[in-house]
Amino acid sequence: MFIQLIHSFKHYLIEVVPALAVGFLLSGVVHEFVRTEWVEKYLGKGSIRPIFYSTIVGTMLPICCWGSLPVAISFYKKGARLGPILAFLVATPATSISALVVAYRLLGPAFTVYIFFSVIIMGVITGLLGNFFKYEPKKMKEEVCPECGEAMHHCEHKANMRAKIKSILKFAFWDMPREIGLEILLGLILAAFVTAFIPLGKLIKLYLSGLWAYPVSIIFGLVMYFCSTASVPLIDALIGHGMNVGAGLVLLLVGPITSYGTILVLRKEFGIKILSFYISSICILSVILGYLYSIIY
Predict the structure, then answer these.
(1) What's the CA gap between 34 and 121, in Å, rounded?
(2) Cα–Cα distances in Å, from 63 out to 58, 70, 131, 227, 237?
(3) How far apart are CA 223 and CA 257, in angstroms?
(4) Burial of 1 (0-12, 13-18, 19+ CB in 10 A)
(5) H helices of 95-160, where?
(6) Which domain holds residue 145?
(7) Are the CB atoms for 69 and 27 separated by under 8 Å?
(8) Cβ–Cβ < 8 Å for 200, 236
């Protein structure tokens, strides 16, 4: 069993580390080139437009929930409101261009179009509701240039590309791992533990059809990590063996969006109340959208 745990942990590392590296690097680019004033202007308002922007951008980025965490936290440190951050965390891991292509090939155009708009609906609704929470954006204290008084990474005295690259790499692979690295590592260990010691496959085979498939899909999606692209063949196989198609959509939504890393980081940065809201909204909205699709199907 210990060997199985090591193999599971190694599997998750191989799958997650590349996405994490991309996510950390993007967070460094955001930190260096995206001005705080821009974030406050476009993501710091309580209207639907910033939430819609975050959702659409999230559906296009080719990173999973692990990779989206450092990017979301970097926006958080720049002063973005809670709604756009939550919308981004919903939309980014839920789907991507590659996931949509695979879904189109295996599950058909109707399923692909439906899940794409389902992700947008979930992101927008979660973001709108998230803005109702009393929340103060966390603004990162920026270093000030002693010569001109401007922020260090925007002033002319630090305009050479070498200095900018150094600043990007420092924030991406030193500051961000110090901020959320421990939570991500613990999340990977928990995911590997569940995979190694809990017979989830047998449980799912017992409760695939009927209304029972919905709560089972939610539980399975919460305790396991699924990549949005890699999970499509699994869902296709389960539906082919009789799984409720609506529950399959629920699993395809909840699995990629929630991970132990996401849960631990949200708990640390935003608190248990916002974490509870985030998970509840994902579960409720995914069941509603999944059940509607089963009726249409």
Answers:
(1) 27
(2) 9, 11, 25, 9, 24
(3) 11
(4) exposed
(5) 97-107, 109-130
(6) 2-296
(7) no
(8) no
Q: Buried (b) or exposed (e) across 193-228, using 16+ Cβ within 10 A? A: eebbeeeeeeebeebbeeeebbebbbbbbbbbbbbb
Query: pLDDT tens digits, the chain, 297 residues: what are they?
Result: 778 888 878 877 776 677 668 767 877 787 777 776 676 666 766 678 889 988 888 887 766 667 788 888 888 877 788 889 999 899 888 887 767 887 888 888 999 999 999 999 999 999 999 988 876 655 555 555 544 555 554 454 455 788 888 888 888 888 878 876 776 777 677 767 766 766 655 666 666 667 788 988 898 888 877 777 767 877 887 777 678 889 989 988 998 888 877 888 888 888 899 999 999 999 999 999 999 999 987
Q: At what angle do helices 272-296 and 245-257 cross, to 10 degrees?
A: 150
Compute the C-alpha angle 36/139/59, nearest 5°.
Answer: 65
Distance from C-alpha of 71 to C-alpha of 68, rounded to nearest angstrom: 5
How wide is the angle at C-alpha 155 spanned by C-alphas 150 and 161, nearest 5°?
155
Q: What predicted TM-score, i.e. pTM, was given to this entire model? A: 0.74
What is the Cα–Cα distance from 140 to 74, expressed in whole angstroms?
9
Residue type, 26: L
Both structure tokens of 128: 């709108």
Closest among 170, 190, 173 to 267, alpha carbons compared: 190
Q: Which two three-digit tokens encode residue 126?
A: 């979660």
Count of structural domains, the chain: 1
**CA 267 from centroid of its chain's CA atoms:** 14
